[in-house]
Prior knowledge:
Layout: E1 41-44, E2 49-52, E3 60-65, H1 76-94, E4 98-103, H2 110-119, H3 123-140, H4 156-168, E5 172-174, E6 180-182, H5 198-203, E7 219-224, E8 240-242, H6 252-255, E9 263-264
Parallel strand pairs: 3-4, 3-9
Antiparallel strand pairs: 1-2, 5-6, 6-7, 7-8
Amino acid sequence: xxVPICRPPxxxxxxxxxxxxxxxxxxxVLRAPSRDPGMLKIYNSLTSQKETFQPIEAGKVRMYVCGMxxxxxxxxxxxxxxxxxxxxARYLRACGYDVTYVRNITDIDDKIIRRANENGEDxxxxxxxxxxxxxxxxxxxxxxxPDLEPKATDAMADIIAMIGALVAKGHAYQGxxxxxxxxxxxxxxxxxxxxxxxxxxxxxxxIEVDEAKRDPLDFVLWKRAKPGEPSWESPWGRAGRxxxxxxxxxxxxxxxxISTFTAAAWI
Length: 267
């Protein structure tokens, strides 16, 4: 593909403020991005500084982005996510990288169940409709589809296995109400990506009436299903479903697709 050339208006033509000299065509050539290892820097949330981008595997980038919860129309924030990471993926490919771009779809959570009940429809029908509308919006913005769009409901077996592994390692537990919680205190490094200390998080923790929790910071990984709710069989006594904190199929579903990530937008 030829490299496009941006030609400025001729001297005296509309569009150039008075006194601004014309630039030469050579200075306005849009050159292909460089794959020089020192050229691209990204912000590392763990170290709180910009660092030279170095993919785990030379020449390949595996990028995972948290996608939409499909119970309503996309809003401006959703458009921002789609546009920003579409630009990132296109830029990396223009640099010559082999990019695998994965953006999940959360198609089961409290909001989806509530909206489906309000509409008197099956949650599958609700989410399928808004997935289609989401794709229409993306097409209207000229956004390319991700390489993969795994849905949470297709990854329940992997999510259950991940939660089971956390329970086995002492990082999660089942409360008296049947729900399974992540034990925040079991992981001393919790909060490092956000730059928060556990003490700071505890000071700002919401006060909730939930005696099943061992600590106010603990959050639900698996929820016992209420009568009439969608549910999946699990090792925790009764059918249930993933909690909001574990619904995005990350990392269990993605780990079966791409083994490691070099960029992630899910915290």
